[in-house]
Amino acid sequence: MHLSDAYADGFGLSFEMFPPKTAAGDEALRVELARLAEYDPAFVSCTYGAGGSTRDRTLDWCRELKNDFGQNVTAHFTCVGAGTGDMAEWLAEARDAGVSNVMALRGDLPEGGPDEDPWQPAAGGLRYANELVAFLREQFPQFGIGVAGYPEKHPECPDPATDLANLKLKVDAGADAVFTQLFFTNDHFLRFRDACVTAGIDVPIIPGVMPVTDFGRIKRITAMCGSSFPKEFASALEAVKDDKAGQFEVGVDWAVKQCRELMDEGVPGMHFYVLNKAAATEQILDGMNLAPVAA
Ligand SMILES: Cc1cc2nc3c(=O)[nH]c(=O)nc-3n(C[C@H](O)[C@H](O)[C@H](O)COP(=O)(O)OP(=O)(O)OC[C@H]3O[C@@H](n4cnc5c(N)ncnc54)[C@H](O)[C@@H]3O)c2cc1C
């Protein structure tokens, strides 16, 4: 399904996975994906490891999602560190694998990143995601295109207004939908959505939801991506820090409340960062009264 159709006829659900590092991880993921497939997602997306570290694994998983799971597939792709010839080669393979959409990303900068003044892309490469969107529109017009949006601004950007102007460049270059970085306070998302509308960004803005099931892991993730963690949520998790089941329950409860509010706010869809596990997302969807389609 092309992204421009994913939200046209009602609520669009999507799940994001990453390629495991081992054969045992692949086997375990297949079991989790079969459970999530019962919710009939608009698409499943597969991440692209930083600096192209999962170049082949991402393609393998896109093929499997398409051929064995019958899913509509969105392939994440980052342009940092690659030349356009190399990019075109990978994108042609993705197209031939039956990928419908590309999540067009710059990717995180290599060591030295933004402090390299000015940061230089690879020879013959692209500097920002808006250039990748333009490249895709020109060379691979069949793909739907998703881009990243940051309710709490991208960590490198000095202020929200500049970050929003940069997001508008991606949409003006041809993106079909914006998928947000994870957030735990809906006010951040709602303010961001209002600012997008004011800026004339008129494509679906899809909230990215990450179920928290392990406080230690989420602390590492938020430290990297710059999303803030509400004190109330942190204290509730701290109180059950030695109890895995307790952390799971607190995390699911928070996400259910968050997602119900977002539904009431009329979001056109939700993108779940499932971290290759089904259980928490299943419980959240049940809490939102979204039953498996097979049920
Ligand atoms: C939904 C989602 C999925 C993701 N999937 C992956 C993945 O699979 N693999 C991965 O490695 N990473 C992934 N990321 C993380 C992403 O790669 C990083 O956040 C990265 O640092 C920025 O990528 P971007 O596409 O947002 O970059 P850009 O949109 O290029 O923005 C990067 C920075 O540059 C600024 N900027 C943008 N355009 C311009 C311009 N024209 N002129 C000046 N400044 C500009 C922005 O304000 C921002 O600060 C994902 C993030 C999200 C939200």
UniProtKB/TrEMBL annotation:
Keywords: Amino-acid biosynthesis, FAD, Flavoprotein, Methionine biosynthesis, NAD, Oxidoreductase. It catalyses: (6S)-5-methyl-5,6,7,8-tetrahydrofolate + NAD(+) = (6R)-5,10-methylene-5,6,7,8-tetrahydrofolate + NADH + H(+). Gene3D superfamilies: 3.20.20.220. Its cofactor is FAD. Signal peptide: none annotated. Pathway: One-carbon metabolism; tetrahydrofolate interconversion; Amino-acid biosynthesis; L-methionine biosynthesis via de novo pathway. The keyword Cytoplasm does not apply. It holds the Pfam family MTHFR. It comes from the Bacteria. It is an enzyme of class 1 (oxidoreductase). InterPro entries: FAD-linked_oxidoreductase-like, Mehydrof_redctse-like, MTHF_reductase_bac. SUPFAM superfamilies: FAD-linked oxidoreductase. One of its GO terms (molecular function) is methylenetetrahydrofolate reductase [NAD(P)H] activity. Its EC number is 1.5.1.54. The keyword Amino-acid biosynthesis applies. NCBIfam families: fadh2 (TIGR00676). Belongs to the methylenetetrahydrofolate reductase family. This is Methylenetetrahydrofolate reductase. The lineage of its organism: Bacteria, Pseudomonadati, Planctomycetota, Planctomycetia, Planctomycetales.
